[in-house]
Amino acid sequence: MAQGLTKRFGDFVATDSISFEVYKGEIFGFLGANGAGKTTAMKMLCGLSLPSAGKAVVAGFDVHTQAQELKRNIGYMGQKFSLYDDLTIIENIRYYAGIYGLSDLEIKIKSEAMIAQLGLQKEARKLVGSLPAGWKQKVAFSVALLHEPKIVFLDEPTGGVDPITRRQFWDMIYEAADKGTTIFITTHYMDEAEYCDRVSIMVDGKIEALDKPSALRKSFGVATMDEVFYQLARGAKRSE
Amino acid sequence: MTVSGLTKSYGKNQEPAVDGVSFEVSKGELFGLIGPDGAGKTSIFRMLTTLILPDKGSAQVIGYDIVKDFKQIRKRIGYMPGRFSLYPDLTVEENLNFFATVFKTSIKENYHLIEGIYTQIEPFKNRRAGKLSGGMKQKLALCCALIHKPEILFLDEPTTGVDPISRKEFWEMLKRLKAQHITIVVSTPYMDEATLCDRIALMQNGKILSIDKPETMLSSYPQPLFAIKAHNMHRLLLALRNYPNTLSAYAFGEYIHLTFKNEAFSRQNGALHGHAGVSNSYAETSNNGIETSNSYTETSNSNIEPSNLNIETSNSNIEASNSKIEPFNYGKETSNNQTSPLKTETVEKDLIAFLKNQGLTDIEFKPEVAGIEDYFIDLLRS
To answer: How far is the alpha carbon of B175 from chain A, nearest alpha carbon, in Å?
Structure first.
């Protein structure tokens, strides 16, 4: 939940009093052009940056006062997959599981389960850097879920993979959401916006639209989310 | 441009990055290399722009060999590489001047070529290139690639990572350039951009899977495509993958795109005769195939009511989609239209019954027109 969330850098208002709610188990798409204020907003929601004004509660924690606990209870997958290329899959799992405070036994159980589920038994001891992008993506997502967070933040997770790999990744997202994990995803692939339950579109620091993709398409009278975005962002003053 | 068996590997014992690629591009054509990261697009561009040598194979660009006559090629081509490669500490105008000079021309001489693009960045001509937005950098890079009036333009993923507005504007610029008879070879991972090209090559893992006009690819999509949705996407996907007649089921946003195994559309025996287990328990058929098809004929002749097909949906769309079921585009097999609608309804009824049994509700099912992404997925699957 965010209410009047604002971030200023000097005179520049990067995030301008945004308010919205995301429901448990929802797949929420956080869209906007480069420079619109998405990353700044995400950082506040992840407890990485203090808001200048307004409030936000994520997974039950206040971003102002409980940033540390918040970080322990969310998952995060960054743009470059956030895995270490020069560690093996198993080493990456152990590393992140350790950071999230899992016990040695939990780490053992979870890593075995994860590797089995992804079918990566043969690759478990290979360096992540040697894996194809599609596999890195799936591993990174699973790693972000190791400590069973209530909400996971995905920052532009599906760059440049083939259409089948991309959908296999979305299969994993659907499954996690179905189990009750809330998914907060930013993307500039507008067709991915269609996979979300609801999306918000940021323009010049403000949220200019928030609804189901089908409702947005209808209210703008267009056939694709790409066109919705185009209508909204056309008048934007800020670009990257 | 003619490319023949082009092959390149990086490092020993590695899979080739480019594996025996062959294709031709005609003068004035807008040709697209479409594929994900790692498909080999950038490596192909680097060989064609004479930046690296192939291990095997050959290519001629505007009549010159990429190995023997590389100097001739370099004078006559424009290249926009994947990453921003202009000078960040030179201004917009300085960058443009630099490239013009390197190619022994001036901004004035070929201004007409870049005018449409340059006027958009001209207000920033004294800004350092490194401080431009993504979309502006792109426009500047394009101007610098055009300033010497190249015969052929190579654009390596010019719209990746750029916002949708700039993407759209960029393709409009390309259309205008094409109208000036410049041959353009562009690579992109975006399927929707594929349809903007005259012809495209779909690539993966260093190989070309298919080359043709986008329209031709789409009209040769091998089976009828359907779109389906239900109250829960995840469970619908799982259920569809458990359904014996499913050939493929992939999420496409709100709907899942679905194809059935060919046996379901067999023209030999009428309804799902050969699928004893599943179809008999869910569909209202008798064991005599002919009777079954007769009963469906009646049903289809008298405008189908939603209840007959066991579809629960609050949408009135269902009638609309039923009327779409009639003429099926099987490519050339239009003469067999008579039997197709019957099979579809049979299959649909059986599927809906199965899904309802799995606890799915609010099911919506309709025919769908295949797009390039469907075509690509089909290629990748096979």
So the answer is: 19
- Tokens coding B231: 């109250």
Interface contact flag, A239 B135, Cβ < 8 Å? yes
Chain B: residue whose CA lies nearest to A162? B36
What percent of chain B has a predicted confidence (pLDDT) above 70?
79
pLDDT at A184 over 50: yes
Angle formed by the axes of helices B164-179 and B134-146, to 10°? 20
- Helix, strand or coil, per DSSP, at residue A9: strand
Strand order in the sheet with B77-80: B77-80, B152-156, B183-188, B30-34, B199-204, B207-212
A154 - beta bridge partners? A77, A185
Domains defined along chain B, listed by start: 2-212 (3.40.50.300), 225-381 (no CATH)
User: Taking the model in full, what pTM does it have?
Assistant: 0.78
Domain A1-73+155-161+171-240, second-level architecture: 3-Layer(aba) Sandwich (3.40)
Q: Of the ranges A132-146, B244-258, B292-306, which one carries the lowest mean pLDDT score?
A: B292-306
Q: How does pLDDT run across B178-220, given as a tens digit for each residue?
A: 988 899 999 998 888 999 999 999 999 999 999 999 999 999 9
Inter-chain contact B232–A226, Cβ cutoff 8 Å?
no
Rounded (5°) CA angle B349-B351-B357: 105
Q: Helix, strand, or coil here: A195?
A: coil
Distance CA B40, CA B13 (A): 17
Cβ under 8 Å to B: A residues 39-98: none
CA distance A5 to A55: 6
CB contact under 8 A, B251 and A171: yes
Q: Which residues is B128 bridged to in the sheet?
A: B91
CB atoms within 10 A of CB B312: 17
The ipTM of this complex is: 0.83
From the list B39, B165, B373, the residue facing A234 with the nearest CB is: B165
Q: How far is B160 from B39, CA to CA, in rounded Å?
A: 15
**A239: which chain B residues are within 8 Å (Cβ-Cβ)?**
133-136, 163, 166
Of B168, B234, B250, the CB nearest to A178: B234
Residue of B nearest to A198 (CA): B254
Q: Closest residue of B to A237, CA-based?
A: B133
A129-143, A159-173, B14-28, B121-135 — most confident range: B14-28
Residues of chain A with CATH 3.40.50.300: 1-73+155-161+171-240
Most confident of A73-87, B113-127, B213-227, B295-309: B213-227
Residues 6+ apart with CB under 8 A from A103: none
SS3 state at B200: strand
Structure tokens at A146: 């190791």
Q: CA of B165 to nearest chain A CA: how many angstroms apart?
A: 6
Mean pLDDT in chain B?
79
Burial of B290 (0-12, 13-18, 19+ CB in 10 A): exposed
Residue B330's CB: how many other CB atoms inside 10 A? Answer: 14
